Every structure is written in C-alpha cells, then in structure tokens.
Inverse folding.
C-alpha cells in the first residue's frame, strides 16, 4: 500500500478516535461506521426476507389448494381475497413482489451490504471505507427503495404484477391490468433508487480494496471473502447501469408516450398509437443485468463459504489462486451469457448456439470452486458448527442446482422446459438457497464480531437440519412438476386435466415450504435473543487467522485502538508444521496473518 494511503488511514483513525463525541443519531441512525452500517443492512434485509418468505407461503397455499377459502388470505389480502379465496391478480402480484424482494433486497443488498461493509475494512486492515459518508448515503437510499417497494403493497390497485422480470407490454401500459398502474410506477422508482444505492456501495468497495490495504496486505494475501466482494462490486458497476437504462426507457414508454418497447398494441379492440418498438429490446437490457445479477448474489456467498470451510476444516483452502481465477472467469463469462434467458424469443438459432456455448463454459470455473471446496474439507479436522453445516449445505445445493443448469443452457433442451417449474426449481437451488445458506453461514460465523456474543449452537443445528430437509423437499419434486409441463405464474392449473395427477406433489411441496418458512422463526429467535443474552464472545472464538479477529470485541470507530497491524503471510495458515511435524506455533494449529515468517519458514500460497 502507498505511504500516502497509509498516512490517510492513520489520520482517519485520529479523527475518529479523539475528536467526535457521538450522539444516538450519529452512532445508530446516520452512522458512518462501516460496522454499524453492516448491521443496518442486515436488519433491513431480515425484515424484507420475512415479507418475501411470507408471500411465498401464501401463494404456495393457493397452488396446493386452488379455490379453497383461507382466513389468513382474507386477513392479509383483504379485498384481493374475497371470502378468503385468493384473486388471480393478487397471486401474480405476490409472485412479482416476492421475486423482486428476494433477489434484490435480500440476496443482493442483504449479502453484499452486510458482509462487504463488515469485512472489507476489517480483513484488509483499514480504519473504515474510503468514503464513510457515501457508505451511509448508499444504505439510506437502499432503505428508501425498500420503503417504496413495500408501500406499493398498500395501493388500492395493488402492487406491480408482471412477474419480477416486468416484461412489456404488461409493465409498459398502465391500463393493461390493475398491477400495471401506480404499483408498477412505484416498482420502477424503487428500483432506480436501489440501483443508485448499489452503485455507490460498489464503487466504495472497489476503491477501499484497492487503496486502503494495510502494510504487507498484497492482493495475493487477501482472504477469498475480499476477492469475492471486490469482484462482485465490479460486476455490479458494469451491469446495473444497463438495468437503469431499461427502467428509464420503460418510464418513458409509460408516462411520456414513447415507443421503445411497444408496437401494434390493441386493447379491447382499440389500436394504440405506439409503433416501432420491441419488447425483445427490454429482454436484452433486463437480462444483461439479470444474469450477472445471479453472480452478484452468489459470489459473496462463495467467498464466505471458502472462508468458513477453511477455518472449520483447520486446513488451508485448496487451490487459492485457482479460486481467484475461477471468480474472475465467472465474473467475465457472466456478462456474455444473458441470451440463454431468451432462447424462445425468436433469436437466430446460430446466436442461440453461441449463448449455449458460453453458458456451458461457465460450468468450468463453477466446477473448479466445487471441487476445491470438497478437497478443502477432505481429511480435515472438521468443526461441525452451524456455520460449517450451512457452508457444506451451500456446496450441495450449488452442485445440484448447477447440474440442472446444464440442461437449461442447451437451446434445444430448453424449449421443453422454458417457463415451467423446472426453471423455478433450478434457480432457487443454485441461486436462492445457495446464497441464503452462504448468508446464514456468514451470520453464524461473524455474529461474535458483529455483536460481541455467541449464537446458540443447538438452535443453529435445529435450524439447519429443518431448513436443509425442507429446501430439498420443496425444490427436488418441483423439477418433476416442471418436466410434466406445468407452467410458472399460473395461479391454478385446474383447467388442464393432464396436471390433475400432480396435485399431491403440489401439496407435498407446499407442506415443506410452510415448515421451512416457520422454521426460520427459530433463527430469528436465536439471532435477537443472542444479540442481548448470548454468551459473551472471546476475541477469536473460531481460532481464525484473518485480521478481523485481531480487533477488540468492543467496537470502536477506527477498528484498532493503536497502530493498524501489518500482514506477513497469506490468510490460510492452518495446521502448518515444521520439518519435525510440530506446529509452527507450539500447541496452536493456526497462525494469524500478523505473525512474521519464522527463520527458514516458507510462505504457502497454492
């Protein structure tokens, strides 16, 4: 790191350590401390997750028992469930907002916002982010966009209802259906603000990682968590502006009479004046963000899982440089595969074959990561705590979900399963459940660093096993529902006699989904109870090597009370022995990054 940057970091410490007397507002609300901002992201993400999961439980009940009357429908949906029977408009609105909340507000902001903010300064040896003020603004824009998205649920005409992908013309014509009116406008405003927040955060993460690393922290000594957050931020900066342009053009079509996405539209026999646009243009713009978005969601989880597996296997991560190379390869390839979402849009078959090739190519770096994780825990001294279980669970769901991606990535095979429940099953496993497991592993692992207390391990075990069994219980049978041809986003399939035999399977899926949703209350209880009453944590409860565990348990603005520690080795020196087979530090199977290399000791970097 440059001397100028180091001097800036030290000055930053003096500023925060001595001159500012913090009030309640500056400490807990408009905080510029990255650790507090990470907690704000986490709590906001948890609230949004509760809303999103509740919605999924409601529409799963409708799919299992179509036309049945439920008191909870009437209580929660009001006029959208007359006599307790869910309305078709309400079903599509629930599916739309569930997808939007879970993809953007929980898995994107919840994961990156929480863990990038918490760990980047702590693991690279910085006092704070490059711009703490920008960090604070990014959070409050995210919070504002969350409020706008949730407030759309209370509109008289209902929230946006066009699927989370908001394809035109449903999203471009305010008069198309109730969910195309004010609800869609609020959806677009919310997403525009969300994108601004995401870009601010990403730029901050990139600059901090490049400029504020402590002395000795070269790029090849960074933990894989930081590599994952850094590359995620770059992918976000490249792809989110494209979604912003798509949203902007959609607002123009809706409100200013343009025809970017509309042409030859008839409503109730009346021809509209729109001419010359194409809804396929929207698909291109949306999916150019939409597919990198999948990796914006999963890459931070990959980084967290790499860190947790190495720590709890008491082994160095296998193939450190290969893991970095695979992250870079995934990030690059993610920007040239978006067409596989559009095989049925009438694209040239040759272009389809190109997208098939790039899509299948991305399986290679993904497989590198999977094999390296498995090799890391092979013959390790495994510490089976909840964070480790969720990390192993993530490897499992990433592999099983990824295998079905090979089928869908083939333009000819995709024809039969496009827009069926097979798609739902695939991306929930490979992106949704895998990213959620990564996030949960991160919460269980870094909870002591965030709150100074330990979570209850036994409740963590119960939470993991119910969640793991129910996740597969929901999405494994769903593949067969999709192979049978059941289309997604239909609020009932009673009009199709050929699907009658699948009713019991839909009920089974729903029962697993309800149990999984209720089981998250165990986690919420454990989380909030442990925050106040959990066992007090020691400074380094997991016997880990990285820098964040060298900071005091009590949080202080600036992270380290004195000088920032210098780094002398890579972050995965677990179970390292000398030529006599003795641990380098007697009686200790890990060597912190701050310990200088001993005489004749070689630095390990695979």
């Amino acid at each position: 790191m440059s001397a100028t940057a180091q001097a800036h970091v030290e000055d930053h410490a003096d500023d925060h350590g001595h001159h500012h007397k913090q009030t309640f507002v500056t400490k807990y609300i408009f905080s510029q401390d990255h650790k507090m901002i990470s907690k704000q992201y986490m709590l906001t993400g948890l609230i949004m997750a509760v809303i999103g999961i509740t919605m999924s439980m409601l529409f799963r009940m409708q799919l299992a028992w179509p036309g049945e009357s439920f008191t909870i429908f009437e209580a929660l949906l009001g006029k959208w469930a007359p006599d307790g029977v869910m309305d078709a408009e309400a079903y599509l609105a629930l599916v739309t907002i569930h997808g939007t909340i879970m993809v953007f507000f929980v898995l994107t902001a919840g994961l990156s916002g929480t863990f990038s903010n918490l760990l980047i300064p702590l693991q690279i040896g910085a006092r704070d982010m490059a711009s703490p003020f920008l960090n604070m603004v990014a959070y409050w824009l995210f919070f504002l966009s969350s409020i706008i998205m949730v407030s759309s649920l209370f509109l008289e005409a209902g929230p946006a209802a066009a699927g989370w992908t908001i394809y035109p013309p449903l999203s471009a014509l305010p008069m198309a259906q109730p969910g195309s009116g004010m609800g869609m406008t609020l959806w677009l405003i919310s997403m525009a603000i969300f994108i601004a927040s995401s870009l601010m955060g990403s730029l901050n993460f990139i600059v901090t990682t490049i400029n504020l690393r402590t002395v000795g922290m070269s790029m090849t000594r960074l933990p894989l968590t930081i590599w994952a957050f850094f590359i995620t931020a770059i992918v976000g900066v490249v792809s989110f502006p494209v979604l912003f342009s798509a949203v902007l053009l959609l607002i123009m079509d809706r409100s200013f009479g343009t025809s970017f996405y509309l042409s030859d539209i008839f409503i109730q026999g009346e021809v509209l004046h729109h001419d010359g646009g194409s809804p396929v243009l929207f698909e291109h713009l949306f999916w150019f963000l939409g597919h990198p978005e999948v990796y914006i969601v999963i890459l931070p989880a990959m980084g967290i899982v790499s860190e947790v597996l190495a720590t709890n296997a008491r082994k160095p991560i296998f193939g450190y440089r290969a893991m970095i190379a695979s992250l870079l390869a995934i990030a690059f390839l993610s920007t040239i595969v978006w067409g596989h979402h559009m095989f049925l849009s009438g694209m040239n078959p040759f272009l389809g074959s190109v997208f098939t090739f790039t899509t299948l190519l991305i399986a290679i770096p993904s497989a590198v990561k999977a094999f390296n994780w498995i090799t890391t825990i092979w013959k390790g001294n495994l510490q089976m705590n909840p964070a480790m279980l969720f990390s192993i669970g993530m490897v499992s769901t990433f592999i099983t979900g990824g295998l079905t991606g090979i089928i869908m990535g083939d333009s000819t095979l995709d024809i039969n399963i496009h827009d069926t429940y097979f798609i739902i099953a695939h991306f929930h496993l490979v992106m949704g459940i895998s990213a959620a497991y990564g996030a949960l592993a991160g919460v269980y692992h870094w909870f002591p660093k965030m709150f100074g207390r330990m979570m209850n391990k036994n409740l963590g075990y119960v939470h993991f096993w119910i969640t793991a069994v129910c996740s597969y219980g929901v999405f494994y049978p769903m593949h067969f529902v999709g192979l049978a041809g059941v289309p997604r986003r239909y609020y009932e399939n009673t009009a199709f006699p050929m699907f009658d035999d699948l009713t019991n399977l839909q009920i089974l899926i729903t029962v697993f989904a309800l149990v999984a949703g209720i089981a998250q209350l165990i986690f919420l209880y454990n989380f909030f109870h442990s925050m106040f009453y959990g066992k007090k944590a020691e400074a380094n409860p997991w016997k880990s090597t990285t820098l964040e565990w060298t900071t005091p348990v009590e949080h202080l603005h600036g992270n380290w009370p004195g000088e920032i520690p210098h780094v002398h080795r890579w972050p995965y020196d677990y179970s390292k022995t000398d030529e006599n087979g003795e641990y380098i530090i007697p009686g200790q199977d890990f060597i912190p990054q701050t310990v200088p290399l001993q005489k004749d000791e070689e630095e390990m970097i695979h």
Summary: The radius of gyration is 25 Å. The chain has one domain: 3-550. The chain is about 60% helix and 0% strand.
